[in-house]
Amino acid sequence: MSTIVLGAVAYDAKVVPIWEGIRAHFREVGVPMDFCLFSNYERQVEALLAGHVDVAWDTPLAHVRVRRRTGGASQSLGMRDTDRDFRAKVVVRKDAGVRTLADLHGRTLAVGSRDSTQARILPLHFLAQAGVDLARVRVLPFDTDLGKHGDTGTSELDVLAALRDGRAQAGAVGDLVWVTEQAAGRVDPARLEVLWTTPAFDHCMFDALPSFPQDRARAFWGALDAMKWDDPRHRRLLELEGLRRWVAPREEGYASLVAALDAQGGW
């Protein structure tokens, strides 16, 4: 079998040891794989569509764009267990008097970068669906690390900072950043609380073109599936990548993102 070339975005220094370790695992189970890193997801999507890489490790935004660009014919090869049923939080200052979603009218809502599914695109979409008139909300955006699709979490940290210093009364952040910041002791529960949790949506996906041979797609999934939490070598990589096991792909978890991009003109 020829080498499968995988594309990933270098959003953090840990990306290199993650993919070096996964490459070693793939080769150990007889699936030659190599990787190349991109500075942003737009470049990675174009490389996949041009055939320069065989597989792309895509954010939800990149995934649905690949699906759109291929007329829905792209192959979804696998995702993390933690990519299923992801959610975002609307966090508020306790002293702001925001007790219901209707109380957001006339207040300032901080949001993450415009390409962040979890900190801007879907929170705004779900809030509108829940009856919030966004025209009556002052949106404070933080377009940090554009091109990384919110992977760095930096814009979400900007949202939390705006809440702490009073620039905003409410803010949207993904579950992961909220839990991580709480665990690190950087959230004061006397000052901030969760007002609302969004409906569930799905996150990252391995994408391939329709032309990617089925035997190589099966081999790719087989190598992923062979990574086991109980194996210490695998666990180190799984922990770094934020999962316990790889799971089969599904598309229904992206329907809300597609609807949001249609409504917001975000394609």
The name of the CATH superfamily of the largest domain reads Periplasmic binding protein-like II
Instruction: Give the name of the CATH architecture of the largest domain.
Output: 3-Layer(aba) Sandwich
Count of domain modules = 2
N- to C-terminal distance: 36 Å
Q: Which stretches are low in confidence, meaning pLDDT under 50 for 5 or more residues running?
A: none
How are the strands of the biggest sheet laid out side by side?
A: 2-1-3-10-4-11
* Broad CATH class of the largest domain: Alpha Beta
Structural classification: alpha/beta
**Radius of gyration from CA coordinates:** 19 Å
Strand count, sense and barrel status of the largest sheet are: 6 strands, mixed
> What is the average of the pLDDT values?
97
Structure overview:
- With 267 residues, the chain is α/β, with parallel strands linked by helices.
- Helices cover 37% and strands 20% of the residues.
- It folds into 2 domains: 4-83 and 203-264, Periplasmic binding protein-like II (D-Maltodextrin-Binding Protein, domain 2); 88-197, Periplasmic binding protein-like II (D-Maltodextrin-Binding Protein, domain 2, 3-Layer(aba) Sandwich).
- It contains 9 helices and 11 strands.
- A 6-stranded mixed β-sheet has the order 2-1-3-10-4-11, sandwiched between helices.
- Helix 4 links the parallel strand 6 and strand 7 (138-141).
- It is globular.
- The chain starts with a strand and ends with a helix.
- The model has no long low-confidence stretch (mean pLDDT 97).
